[in-house]
């Protein structure tokens, strides 16, 4: 198991679903986890779970769309733990599933604000801190949809393609500062909010395109996130790791 003992990790959207699995997985590996979520009760619940298991965590209420709130998240983390070693950009949304001609500019803005712009803002703030320290590791959650562009999911797919693209750019920009930047591209994950947003026939079709014949488990994705954050991946940067059961073709 990847060891993250003493590392301080911020997980956006860490209070539920995949974010909860990531938060718990990092804590089990010894990280001090900041659970950053707009759902304060959810973040506090995950904090309690981690602490009950002997880990260390801090719940911070934050809307990642609000730069002031993100600054508070970073300040609160540094106040509590002294620094930040790891950032997981997990907060995101599926958005509407509809054909191009039925989309609206408001749909595009809403999805891109959360899945793209907010990740820029959060990473920019945390990266400045990491640059001062000369080290750090950043992992963003992309999606296999950003590679294969599912029918009726052009907005979501495009937003996750952006995550893959800026991951590669940031990796090149931040390498000289000792900061690694990677992303993870899962297929549909079981028992998550995103699966719940999908019509059942759409979810069934998503499963039919996975060669391993099932949905991903949240812990399977969380394990790859932990690996990329840790020293076992010390020579990995600018990578997009698929957790797609064979669905991704490149």
Key features of this structure:
7 strands, alpha/beta, 250 residues, 7-stranded parallel sheet, 9 helices
How is this structure best described in words?
With 250 residues, the protein is of the alpha/beta class. 48% of the residues lie in helices and 16% in strands. The protein has nine helices and seven strands; from the N terminus they run E-H-E-H-E-H-E-H-E-H-H-E-H-H-H-E. Strands 3-2-1-4-5-6-7 form a seven-stranded parallel beta sheet, sandwiched between helices. Helix 1 crosses helix 9 (218-229), helix 3 (67-81) packs parallel to helix 4 (105-133) and helix 4 (105-133) packs parallel to helix 6. The radius of gyration is 17 Å and the shape is globular. The mean pLDDT is 95.
